[in-house]
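haha ok so turns out i had the wrong file open the whole time. this is the CORRECT one, sorry everyone. sequence first:
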Amino acid sequence: MPKNFKELVNLALNHINLALFALLVLGWFTVFAYMAGYIRAGGSGDEKKMSAARQVALFGILGLVAMLVYWGAAKIVCISLLGDTGCK
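then structure:
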């Protein structure tokens, strides 16, 4: 249980960082799976599957970039509120 505001912010940011890390790992696996599907569809020549896999892979990469931006923003907030030693 946090005893002051600094500990509360640290606890909240630690949970946010953990959740973002889990989403990043899940996102990487998803993007790689769809990229493999795109390569597989290219080998078979199925244009419809290639288009769908390309679109999902593109949005997956954009999602990963957005998650990295949110992770960086959380790190900036943590450092500005808690100092360099309070952030993990």
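DSSP finds two helices and no strands in the chain.
again sry for the mixup
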